[in-house]
Every structure is written in C-alpha cells, then in structure tokens.
C-alpha cells in the first residue's frame, strides 16, 4: 500500500493481468474511506475504454457519467481539488488522434470539449492542477505518459514473483511432486514463465498440466512452446463426447471469437462491449461456450463487456483467425466486418510491428499454429478446417532470398524464435534453405535453445558467428566471484546439455566451414565441449576464430587436441586471450604432430613472453603446413626473436608471413630480422605498431 501524501501524478505500469486495476481500485477505496488522508476525499474512476466512446461534453459531465447522483455536487467537489483523486485506468487502450491530448487545452470545467481534450487538460494540469492522478498502463504507453505528465512517480507492478508462482502451483495441485514438476516445466519455458507473473496465466498452466497428469500423460512437450500449451488448454475446455469426434456447435462460434481477438489486436482493444460485437456481426450467444470454458470473462458493470482471461490468450486466438478456413456462410456473415484486420504480410511488417508491438506476439503464435500435429488437434476438437496455405504465406515473408545476408522482414533472432515456436522441421528447412551465413548473439538460455533447434535444419550454412554474453555460463572466470558453488552447479546442469546440443551442429553440418565465436564469455566445461566437437573427425570446420573469449592456459590442452584430430582445420585465431607462455607451450605440442594441418595461427595479444619461444621455434621446425603466424602485441624481446630466428632461417621452414611487435629502436632485433630475410627470402615480416588498447584489424579480414 502507498503511504500518503501522494505526489500529484502516480503511474502504475506493468504487463497485462498483474493487478494494476485491482490495486488502483483498492487505493480509490482507501482514499474515499479516509485511510490515506485526514479529511474526507472524493475519487473518480475513468475507464479509457469508456472514454473512447464519449463525444463532446463538459468536464463535469465527463466525470459524472457513471455517477449521475453527484452532478449537483460537482462545483463543491472541484472547489477542493487537492482532495480529489482521479483514476485513469488503461491509458494504453486510449484511442485518440495524434496530438489530441495536447491541443486546445481547456481549464473551464463548464465548457463543451471533445473528451480527449478534457483528458489532456487534466493530464497537463490545465484542469484542476492540484488534483491527484493515478494512471494505470501497460509499458508500451510509458513514453507518451512521460511527455504528457509533469514529474510523475512511476511504480512498476510486477505481479507474481517466482516464489508467488511456486506457492500458487503448490496450492493448486494436491500432490507436491506434481506441483513442483509442473512449476519446473513452466520455468523451463522463459516466455511462458514471464507470462506467469499474471495469476490468470498461472491458473491456465496449472489447469492444463493437472489434467494431463491426471490422465497419465507426460506434459513436457506441452510446455515446450507457449502455443502448444495454450492450444492444449483451449481444447481441454471442450472434451469430446463419448462417441468421439468434435462436440457439436463449436465450429460456428470459433470464427467470431477469433475475429474479435484479431480486431482487438489491430485496434489495440482488450475490452469489447455490445457496440463492438454488433459492428463485427458477432452475436453474444456465440460467445457463451467460451464464457463457460473460462476463455472469456464478462463484466456486468453497466453494459456487458467482454475480455479474454489474459492478453496473451487474445494474441493466441488472433493468430488462430489467420489459420482457420471460414465456411461460406461464415464468410458471408463476417466478410464486411473485419476491415481493421491486416493480412499476414501486414502482420509481419516491421513498420506495423513497431507501431503495434502486440503484432509480434500474434506472429509468433501464428508460426506455432503451423505445426501439423497442432492443426489436427484443433480440427479434431472444433471440427474446423485449418488453412494449408498459411505456411506458404509465412515463408513468403520470412524466407531469405538468394544472395541476401538477412531475412526479408524479420531480424534473425525473431525468425529463429518463430521457427522454434512452430516445432515443424520441414518449415525450418524451407525457411533456412538459402542461408549460408548467420550471426547470432546468445544472451540467455532461450537464445541457445532456439538457435540449436534451427541450426540443425540449416543444411546449407557455411559460416556461423556466435557471441556468447556474460552470464550464460556462471562458471566462467568472470563469474566465479559472484556465483556460489550451488549456482554454478545448477547452471552446468541446465546449460551444458543445451550448449552440447548446439555444438553438435559443428560436427553434423557437412557444409559448415567457418566458425567465429568472438567477444564471448565461455567456461572451462563449455570450451571442452566446443573443442570436442571441433576435434571430431566428422567435422568439416576449416577456420575457427575464438577471439577475446577470456580463454586462459586451462583451455589450451583441449585446443591442442583439436589441432591433431581435426585434419580439416587450417586456420585458428586465439587473439586477445591471456593464454600466457604455458598455454602456448600446450598449443605447440599439437603443432608438432604430423597430423596437424594448420596453416594460419593468430596469437595476437596473448600475453606471450620469450619463455615460450623455444617451444614455438621447435613447432616451426616440425610443422610443414603453417604459413602464417601472428604474434603481434606480444613482448618477445630480442631473446625471443632470436629463438624464432633459429627455425625461420631454415629454408625448409614453410612460414611465409610473420607478424611481430617490433621495437624499431632495438638494433639487435633489426639485425635478426635482416638475417631472417636473407636466409628465407619467401618470408614476409609485418611490424605491428598498434596501441594494444585499440582493436586490431578484424581477424575476419586477416583469415577469411
């Protein structure tokens, strides 16, 4: 509970369904019952959904629309404005023309003005500047509120925290083991777990998984994607009759329900009144099965209004609108009523999704509904037909064209997320058919899972660039101090199998030749897995870059083994890793083996000193394939260069390019370099004068 006195403007923000309206109404009750003030106060509740339908009126009429009995008291109430609370609920649902809230502002509460002008006057403090405003909104409207309000206090409403969700599951299930199993399954799906901050989503998940467990089914696959769980929940609300087949009377109302959801997404509405239903040609009786099944909920405050149990359920049903084949009579009945609903191309348009972020969620659900097994489940429950053309439509707008390096309208991360949601291997193969290069940034477990699933079906991929951000592997050197032993153990238990699954692509994809994992935070265990896959005899990898990955000597034994086992590996870049002398000595062990086919080795800025140069010299004598060696930004001194000279003077040494950090003022080093050139004319020696703080020219340019 907020403690008084209030600032003039308070904004409660948070995702759908977390209790913003409930809290606002509780505060309103406390305000009027004198719990937050010393004297009697007045409070007015304004719904943005209602304001959307109001025309020109006075401010007095605006605030007394639902309380006609206070009409006569308005002057007295407004006279003590500092004791008046206005609750503006659902600001994100307000539909007004651009600029309507800031133009023609008015301070006269008796003057007739359009409702948006009166509302803007209240927000901009032209009307009742001393009144207290409490605004609820979803995050998408925060930027606009920052511009409209003066010195607002923003309070985030988080809904159920993790411990709250767990407690809810334990209360819902009779058996603790089932509750914990269901909770872990929801937690394994990051998108679903985030939605679980809303109590209604927790109820939905619990209800669905409990039914599956009671039937002896394994619910793991259901929780793999949000689409799968929502579809299973929807179908479970309408069990088939004893004789089998779909229940009668469900097919006809499904289309209007999905139309309502889709139109609401495009018009940014989540509450629908009788006027909305009449405009769309939807009869209230068509919604009855879904009210009974707790898909919809009905408010009886004034005129009956309908809303979905959660915004994500509306997004899911909006996606279903695009996959359902309407029957002829449905098409005739609804054909002229859904001009607000854009086609698939518009739904996936970047410009439209920037204007309306909800379209992104609908698009992801649309991919999820393209799964053949889910289509069969939908058809079996409702007796409807699912479009066979929708996959072609999605591929049309997401397929990477020949010769292009990016997808058509969606960025790579979003494409992978949508393709994973489909769980349809052939769809992934078709979407990725022309992809030869891909760059991915792995920020969390979800990114690893989505990337792994899609990369397995990207058969023509030739070059892959990955960036693993800090925190994915908690036992990385940078996280050792902050992570407890228990956290690191749990992290390994969950992340390493997923990482291993992703790395399996490095040995299974016969076309993958280039792998770049730079600017990344890896752990000992993750590097070991990586090296195992690179070293696999089946791997086709030729060029590997592990630049600035916080590698140390602890990783070099595994890397050395990879040099011996993978005889296709010809280029290796380990630049900007503090391998040190001991690490380089371990690498030299692999270089000396005749099986090693390495042609280019980059050890730029690897903290090397003269103490490993004897081993490097020995490796140069033994290795007959190495033609490029980059030792730039390492302080080798004249003694180190002298040891290298012993090998490089030999005519049998195949090295053609050597990069060194050269002290031009050191006469001894200059003499050694001249001797090397005279003895080995084919050798090119490049001087590296760059400041070590600067980023060196990309190893991509040097190697590829």
Automatic annotation (TrEMBL):
<dbReference type="Pfam" id="PF17776">
    <property type="entry name" value="NLRC4_HD2"/>
</dbReference>
<dbReference type="InterPro" id="IPR032675">
    <property type="entry name" value="LRR_dom_sf"/>
</dbReference>
<dbReference type="InterPro" id="IPR041267">
    <property type="entry name" value="NLRP_HD2"/>
</dbReference>
<dbReference type="GO" id="GO:0005524">
    <property type="term" value="F:ATP binding"/>
</dbReference>
<dbReference type="GO" id="GO:0005737">
    <property type="term" value="C:cytoplasm"/>
</dbReference>
<dbReference type="InterPro" id="IPR007111">
    <property type="entry name" value="NACHT_NTPase"/>
</dbReference>
<dbReference type="Pfam" id="PF05729">
    <property type="entry name" value="NACHT"/>
</dbReference>
<dbReference type="GO" id="GO:0050727">
    <property type="term" value="P:regulation of inflammatory response"/>
</dbReference>
<feature type="region of interest" description="Disordered">
    <location>
        <begin position="680"/>
        <end position="704"/>
    </location>
</feature>
<feature type="domain" description="NACHT">
    <location>
        <begin position="8"/>
        <end position="211"/>
    </location>
</feature>
<dbReference type="InterPro" id="IPR041075">
    <property type="entry name" value="NOD1/2_WH"/>
</dbReference>
<dbReference type="InterPro" id="IPR050637">
    <property type="entry name" value="NLRP_innate_immun_reg"/>
</dbReference>
<keyword id="KW-0433">Leucine-rich repeat</keyword>
<dbReference type="InterPro" id="IPR003593">
    <property type="entry name" value="AAA+_ATPase"/>
</dbReference>
<feature type="compositionally biased region" description="Basic and acidic residues">
    <location>
        <begin position="686"/>
        <end position="704"/>
    </location>
</feature>
<protein>
    <recommendedName>
        <fullName>NACHT domain-containing protein</fullName>
    </recommendedName>
</protein>
<keyword id="KW-0547">Nucleotide-binding</keyword>
<keyword id="KW-0677">Repeat</keyword>
<keyword id="KW-0067">ATP-binding</keyword>
<dbReference type="Pfam" id="PF17779">
    <property type="entry name" value="WHD_NOD2"/>
</dbReference>
<dbReference type="InterPro" id="IPR027417">
    <property type="entry name" value="P-loop_NTPase"/>
</dbReference>
